[in-house]
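pls read this protein:
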Amino acid sequence: MLRCKWMGLAENIAKVRENIASAAQRAGRKQEEISLVAVSKTVDADMVEAAYREGLRCFGENRVQEFLKKSEVLPKDIEWNLIGQLQTNKVKYIINNGVALLHSLDRLSLAQELQKECLKKNAYLDVLIELNIAKEESKSGLYLEQVDVFLDQIADFDRIRLKGFMTVAPYTDDRMYLRKIFAQAKALYDAKKKEFPGFQYLSMGMSNDYEDAILEGSNMVRVGTAIFGSRIYK
């Protein structure tokens, strides 16, 4: 049964790595510049461990509760990324608890709670600011014109270490439009990196569009379905 669940996993991972390398080459970049976050939401811990045995070390979870359950039983050298919208009442569960990077800082109230909890636990947290470039009502994130005000608002939050931006592009087959969205994120990243030397990551690109994202400058892609197959929601 377990062997059946894992059938194709190694091939999927190899294919994603091959695509990343190809896109990086076309963009005049090195594959090593692109970090792969394997999005393991809804995926059982045993399958995550199988992916770990294939060499993956960075996994992304949407829900705090799911992250907590998996992190208890999986290898301790996994770099856990939280990529879903984070509720303020869940912040206390992630500080000093194995989260390497939060991708979804999207509002002042969350920043305030992160700063508060980090101070309480004498901790720091690496975060990405989430962008909503296409202004989709169904998605969280800051509009481009809101970023400067937000950066000013959190300027004194010394426990939050800003590492860059994350964005989720619209789900569309219009690759020109996708490339435009990604290019806007890259332009903002490049501009702000001059002000914030700690910026390291531009997290954009998912299973359906990560190659286009890499072509436009992404250095971190979040790939789930292309690795683990279609989601099974309980």
